[in-house]
Amino acid sequence: MASIAVIGGTGALGKGIARRLVKAGHDVTIGSRSAEKAQVTAEELGAAGYAANADAASGKDVVIVTVPHSSQGDTLALIKDKVGDAVVVDTTVPLVPPKVMRVQLPSEGSAAMQARAHLGPDVKLVTAFHNVSAHHLDSDHAIDCDVLVFSDDIEARKTVVDLCPGMGLRGLSGGSLGNSAAAEALTSILIYMNKTYKADGAGIRFTNLTEAPAIP
Ligand SMILES: NC(=O)c1ccc[n+]([C@@H]2O[C@H](COP(=O)([O-])OP(=O)(O)OC[C@H]3O[C@@H](n4cnc5c(N)ncnc54)[C@H](OP(=O)(O)O)[C@@H]3O)[C@@H](O)[C@H]2O)c1
């Protein structure tokens, strides 16, 4: 079992991810700008610990960052020198309110590329979880959605793919960090589909992958 911090773990996505990681038996620390706020979520989920974000990010195997795009840079700058050898998983989708149903990727190409710029070349950076609805994660039901995982570090990518089945998800390698743009863009399409087809959290499934992990 891994030691995992969820930065912004009091929010919609972070709490959902943390809930499933706790259930899978991992040693989960909830991070927040406020340790008191993190404590409330940690106690609700039965997580092992809670701390202010920078402390939460220290000494972990995996650090998952779940904050709004507008605070991605400041948050990554805060934890950059704390994460050490950890695999850092950035979940940021670069939505531009109010037109969140339109793909509007940043000039750098993706939130992943922005994360790389903020963290520098030495941090083991992975991106994932862009297409999974927070409210499905924050439940005990099965989730009909694949998780695309991107990184230029093959071992780090595998670490995150392997976390997924325990969370009730199928993790699939999506290749290099640059490919993250595709999953980030898909989120706007999923939001559009939720509205158009009155879906309760549309997801994605890939087919004909005979050698991929089984759907849990
Ligand atoms: N919601 C989804 O279904 C979903 C799905 C896929 C990907 N995502 C991505 O996941 C990320 C988080 O989404 P979310 O819906 O969970 O967001 P959220 O609930 O609005 O915010 C998550 C947490 O971020 C922290 N935060 C808010 N403003 C901040 C600031 N200015 N500086 C530092 N931390 C701040 C807050 O934690 P504290 O107040 O405790 O510090 C908050 O609980 C986003 O990038 C989003 O695109 C979301």
From TrEMBL:
InterPro entries linked: NAD(P)-bd_dom_sf, NpdG, P5C_Rdtase_cat_N, STEAP_metalloreductase
Entry annotated with the keyword Oxidoreductase: yes
A Pfam family that the UniProt record links to this protein: F420_oxidored
Keyword annotations: Oxidoreductase
SUPFAM superfamilies named among the record's database cross-references: NAD(P)-binding Rossmann-fold domains (SSF51735)
Highest rank taxon of the organism: Bacteria
Family matches, as Gene3D superfamilies: NAD(P)-binding Rossmann-like Domain
Domain Pyrroline-5-carboxylate reductase catalytic N-terminal: 4-94
Protein name: NADPH-dependent F420 reductase
Phylogenetic lineage: Bacteria, Pseudomonadati, Pseudomonadota, Alphaproteobacteria, Sphingomonadales
